[in-house]
Design brief:
Blueprint: E1 4-15, E2 23-34, E3 38-42, H1 49-57, E4 64-69, E5 72-73, H2 79-89, E6 90-93, H3 105-110, H4 120-133, H5 149-161, E7 167-171, H6 179-194, E8 199-204, E9 215-220, E10 223-229, H7 249-256, H8 262-274, H9 280-294, H10 300-308, H11 320-349, H12 352-369, H13 376-390, H14 396-404, H15 416-440
Parallel strand pairs: 3-8, 3-9, 6-7, 7-8
Antiparallel strand pairs: 1-2, 1-4, 4-5, 9-10
Helix pairs in contact: 4-5, 5-6, 7-8, 9-10, 10-11, 11-12, 11-15, 12-13, 13-14, 14-15
The structure holds adenosine-5'-diphosphate and magnesium ion (MG).
Length: 441
Amino acid sequence: MAQILIEAKDLEVTYNVGKSNEFKALKGVDVEVCSGEYIILFGTSGSGKSTLMNCILGSLPNSGGYFAVKGEEVYKYTVEEMVYYQQVMVGIMFQTFNLIPSLTVLDNVALPQIFASQPIEKRQAKAQDLLDRFGVGHTSHKVPTNLSGGQQQRVSVARSLVNDPEILLCDEPVGNLDSRSATDVMNTIEEVNQRDGKTIILVTHDAKHLPYAHRVYYLQDGEIIREVPNPEKEQIKEVEEPGGGLVSEIEHLTRLFPYVSLEEVRVKSLINFLTQDINFDQVQALEKVVYRYICGTLSDKELRRVLRLRLENGGVGVEESHAREMARELSKLMQRSQEVSRFRKLVKSHSAYYRHKYIKRLRRHLEKRFELKLSDAQKRGMNQALTDRLMGILRKEDFKSRLRRSTNREGAGLKPNTTRAICDYLEKLIAQGVAFEKHKH
Ligand code: ADP
Ligand code: MG
């Protein structure tokens, strides 16, 4: 069984207690971290990440709840015990590198060992080893300001590890770096977790970093609103089924889409509800199939077959008539969107004759699809509206009102419900058509 290293229960931190500007930055937070885990605290600015981090570091006492490391309550430590905790148990690195500018790189890294009662040569040798390991050994005699940001942060990693702490705390460690150095430092931190077995707690507001962690705590307004295990990493802490065995679909979806927001997960759940005749696994399978279809690796005929094929055989498992209807809809939509794409090319070559042909065909398709009975004047109005929309002269909203406008004012005289449906459908064609153009380039 995994060993709990850090435990917070109902943890509260209040700033400026008793003053007019009293502010509760953590409002009852539960956190459990096991030895060897890589944990990310994720949330927008002001959500309380640094507050939680400083509390774990032992530099910001909690004003309520329970906080312990290895079963010992950190804020009940004596002064000596606290010094030991902060020097030897935890290492820390920040967004700003916090290196001392008047010391050489080597001395910066050697410094935290001051309490280790080692002779200076040993301390320096250890510092040099770490600098070498993180690829900045050649900078040891320089002062930090002569190093690049990425190099300085790798020096910080070395410094935070020099006392061999069990826990490494990183508060936005790559927030000040360009993306290449950032990836570099993130990989270094991951190695410290994987190879050295250090427990990592890292603060970030960048979703791109989430895949590094075993688990992510999402913070918002001083509360943990979600806890998500990374499905791509073997979990160290046992994952409990939330709600005493009652796993809601939201939790199921959360595991499948760990990096999207809760709102998106809820949307997926609702979409699932709206397409009730196929279940969630089928929706997923369908997404994959449609992807192959739009990439052109699946023909219309194969599409029909795969839609019908059972889930366990790599299909989507919808029933025959439904499969046929879906395939037909998709195929029509793709054909029309290819025409949209072709039409847009013709705009560039000024070939009005073919342009008109496409527009007529598109209009007839819409007439049929939406069961319209149009007068000649309405047809003319609609042709013009379609042309202008596809040429980019009309915006979506203007297209809608043009369709609604009466025919003697160059509109198509359609009812609001119809215009809305046509407009939404046309936007789908345009979206697919434009994407199609990009795809082919
Ligand atoms: P994060 O690191 O997620 O951006 P912080 O933990 O720094 O958030 O801050 C959480 C909230 O607490 C913010 O609203 C911030 O303004 C407030 N806060 C942080 N430090 C102090 C402080 N020393 N005194 C008063 N309020 C603070
Ligand atoms: Mg912060």
